[in-house]
From TrEMBL, chain A:
Membrane-topology descriptor: Multi-pass membrane protein
GO biological process, one term: transmembrane transport
Entry protein name: Sugar ABC transporter permease
Secretion signal, residue range per the UniProt entry: none
Transmembrane segments: 12-34, 103-123, 150-176, 197-218, 252-274
Coiled-coil spans in chain: none
Location relative to the cell: Cell membrane
Keyword Transport: yes
Short name of one Pfam family: BPD_transp_1
Family of the protein in this entry: Belongs to the binding-protein-dependent transport system permease family.
The species this protein was found in: Rhizobium straminoryzae
From TrEMBL, chain B:
Family from the record: Belongs to the bacterial solute-binding protein 1 family.
One Gene Ontology cellular component annotation held by this UniProt entry: periplasmic space
Residues in the signal sequence: 1-23
Record-given protein name: Carbohydrate ABC transporter substrate-binding protein
Statement: the UniProt record of this protein carries the keyword Signal: yes
Organism: Rhizobium straminoryzae
Length: 287, 424
């Protein structure tokens, strides 16, 4: 057996290894330890798995988990479907294409907190622009962020608006890499535009789809800033997600408990994303 | 013993004066962003600088609420606390582990000026004083609009039933009876927290038993009343239409200017009105949250926050001198003149002659023994962090009062366990 020797000496990797272990490895291990303690920043007392038991018993946790999954899948699905459609439109050579691309991408550049605060003003139940405009044409606007049945979906809508630009951009790059030969061949064979979209574009743009779905799922699962800026998980607990439940434990000074919550979030993301990427990658090989 | 203390103190003073003559001192100060806090500290620092022109203050502000709690704890734990900082008294103070993290102030010359009622809420478990009162005591109750009351010929209610009858008349007159501001979730807790006078008059040992895990909100009818009150007023449709999104400032403006008749709140809201709608101050009245018995009508009170010094800081000696002065009657009256929104807790410290109407409405409760009771958070270290979300749920019709109380009982378990209380 031949042991393949790296062409570089070990000290080459030292700087990266030091940075990685100090900034990533050590905190990760420390958080595993602190998740097993009752920690008040001044002292930590080992209590075994009590924090995990407590966190999983949180009455708002189940609602938060369901909301997290709804949020992640809804934003991911809408972004990938509308992102692809917009990308097709914006690569079709329509008028002012460059300008429109910039307009679509613009919300991505704005700070999430800024977007959240702006939309919570726009969605104010009585003074917000949206409901004032609706009432001007005789429609009584709902309490976008104050109706417990609606709050989560209003935030999803804003997240979709804000993240659509990035999905579109990735799809535009994906579309650009499809060779025009395929379309030419399809046209010679007499394919319609719809057929070309479903039989040529969708399968060949798959790498972009994988990127968009994975990124937006991870983003959705750990989303926090927009929700916090818009509703703080309210009214009550109706728009709480896993990350906001964790943050509230931290705010209340339950540092060990919130660390345990973070470990659970880490495991949950792993459990959803790992099989999914494995599945995507296998399909790619089969193609 | 006394002699030695005096001599050491004297030598410290001499040493300090010598150093003060050489260099000016800048004390770093950490305050929350409340407008009353800023006004109080300005009054305090300005008059101190007249005595000690060599001292200047570098004031830094921090968020309030639980974000502020974290910041204070983190800075204390990492040894990066300002020379002087302002923070809550009572159970939040205890959570700072005062005997380890804060400077002992019991040796200050003016320490004896701190009134007994306040001393209790800034004393570390080892029996030493760690904080100086900063600001007026507050009442938790209901602000009302005096104009609306006069126009409709209403009387200040002494029982909850009278209060609801007033609400019905106000609603019939086409006005908003109760302002609610769930855009700031903490404002939703008042009907529960301000009901504690009524709980403690009915069950004097509720707080002790509560801390010992022997009584619960859900199974104690008189404690459950607070949650039921929210449910009742919500079901009666008495709120402003934007109650889910309105903020604390909106609530104060509404009740002061007559857009709403009532707003349950702590009296520190007076400061907000005197800053934003001073012309409306005479119309702003205040009464205690009524219970079921008119003969037992009284006010739930909140202690003000305190000024503290960390156990270790660069300017520890100068910081203590400032705190000593802050505990003097003279300094207290400077604060009382700047923010006359309630009684001060330094002995013989008097309020200025002209005070807002709502403050005069509140003072009688303090003048009769037994008509005030401290809020639960000053008697028990347990306060569940999710109460404000739970009360929002009740007020928004998401959860019933009984369920809410049971959920809150579950929520406080975490706090009790984190504090390591026995019996939980």
């Amino acid at each position: 057996m031949i042991v393949q020797k790296s062409p570089y000496p070990y000290w080459f990797v030292m700087p990266a290894a030091v940075v990685f272990s100090v900034l990533f490895l050590a905190p990760t291990l420390a958080s595993l330890w602190f998740s097993l303690t009752r920690w008040d920043l001044f002292s930590a007392q080992f209590i075994g798995l009590e924090n995990y038991r407590q966190f999983l018993r949180e009455p708002f946790l189940i609602q938060g988990l369901i909301n997290t999954v709804i949020y992640a899948f809804a934003t991911s699905a809408t972004k990938s479907v509308f992102g692809l459609l917009l990308a097709v439109l914006l690569t079709s050579g329509i008028w002012a294409q460059g300008f429109l691309r910039a307009v679509i991408f613009f919300p991505v550049l704005v700070s999430t907190i800024g977007v959240g605060i702006t939309f919570s003003v726009l969605m104010h139940p009585t003074n917000g622009v949206i409901n004032v405009a609706l009432s001007a044409i005789g429609i009584p606007g709902p309490g976008w962020l104050t109706d417990p049945a609606l709050a989560l979906y209003s935030i999803i809508l804003v997240d979709f608006w804000k993240g659509l630009g990035l999905a579109t951009l990735i799809y535009i790059a994906g579309l650009a890499s499809i060779s025009p030969d395929y379309y030419e061949a399809a046209r010679i064979d007499g394919a319609t535009r719809t057929q070309m979209f479903f039989r040529v574009t969708v399968p060949l743009v798959r790498p972009a789809t994988v990127t968009v779905v994975t990124l937006s799922l991870i983003g959705g699962l750990r989303s926090f800033d927009l929700i916090w800026a818009m509703t703080r998980g309210g009214p009550g607990f109706s728009s709480d997600v896993l990350a906001s439940v964790i943050y509230k434990q931290y705010q209340a000074g339950f540092y060990g408990l919130s660390t345990a919550g973070n470990v659970i979030l880490f495991l949950l993301i792993g459990l959803i994303i790992l099989p999914m990427t494995a599945w995507f990658n296998r399909k790619e090989v089969d193609l | 013993m006394r002699m030695t203390m005096r001599t050491t103190l004297a030598s410290v003073l001499v040493a300090l004066m010598a150093s003060a003559a050489h260099a000016d001192v800048t004390l770093s100060v950490l305050l929350d962003t409340n407008s009353e806090t800023t006004a109080l500290f300005e009054a305090l620092s300005k008059s101190y600088q007249q005595k000690r022109p060599d001292v200047s203050f570098d004031v830094e502000s921090r968020p309030g609420g639980s974000e502020g709690d974290n910041l204070v704890k983190t800075r204390l734990a990492t040894g990066e606390m300002a020379d002087i900082f302002q923070y809550n008294s009572g159970s939040l103070f205890q959570a700072l582990k005062p005997e380890r993290t804060l400077a002992d102030l019991s040796g200050l010359g003016n320490a004896g000026n701190v009134t007994d009622i306040f001393r209790k809420v800034v004393t570390a478990p080892d029996g030493t004083l760690r904080g100086i009162p900063f600001g007026p005591a507050m009442g938790g109750g209901i602000f009302y609009n005096r104009k609306i009351y006069a126009d409709l010929g209403l009387q200040v209610p002494k029982t909850w039933a009278e209060f609801m009858a007033n609400n019905a008349k106000i609603k019939a007159a086409g006005k908003v009876a109760i302002a609610q501001t769930y855009g700031d979730t903490w404002t939703s807790q008042l009907f529960v927290l301000a009901d504690f006078y009524n709980v403690s008059t009915a069950l004097p040992d509720f707080a002790t038993k509560y801390t010992a895990n022997q009584v619960k909100y859900a199974t104690t009818p008189v404690a459950l009343r607070g949650f039921e009150h929210i449910e009742e007023v919500a079901k009666a449709g008495l709120f402003n239409p934007d109650f889910g999104a309105a903020r604390f400032g909106d609530g104060m403006r509404m009740v002061a200017t007559g857009q709403a008749a009532h707003f349950p709140m702590l009296t520190f809201g007076i400061g907000n009105v005197s800053q934003n709608n001073p012309e409306a101050l005479p119309d702003l009245g205040f009464f205690a949250q009524p219970g079921d018995d008119a003969t037992k009508n009284g006010l739930t009170i909140w202690m003000p926050s305190a000024l503290y010094a960390p156990a270790k800081s660069e300017n520890a000696a100068e910081a203590k001198k400032f705190l000593d002065w802050a505990a003097s009657r003279e300094a207290c009256e400077q604060m009382a003149a700047a923010v006359p929104s309630g009684p001060y807790l330094i002995k013989d410290c008097s309020l200025p002659k002209s005070i807002p109407q709502a403050v005069s409405d509140m003072l009688p409760y303090f003048e009769t023994a037994g008509r005030t009771a401290p809020a639960l958070e000053f008697l028990s270290p347990i306060k569940g962090p999710a109460l404000e979300q739970i009360t929002v749920e009740v007020g928004s019709g998401i959860r019933s009062a009984r369920d809410a109380a049971a959920l809150y009982d579950q929520d406080v378990q975490k706090q009790a366990k984190q504090l390591g209380l026995p019996n939980w």
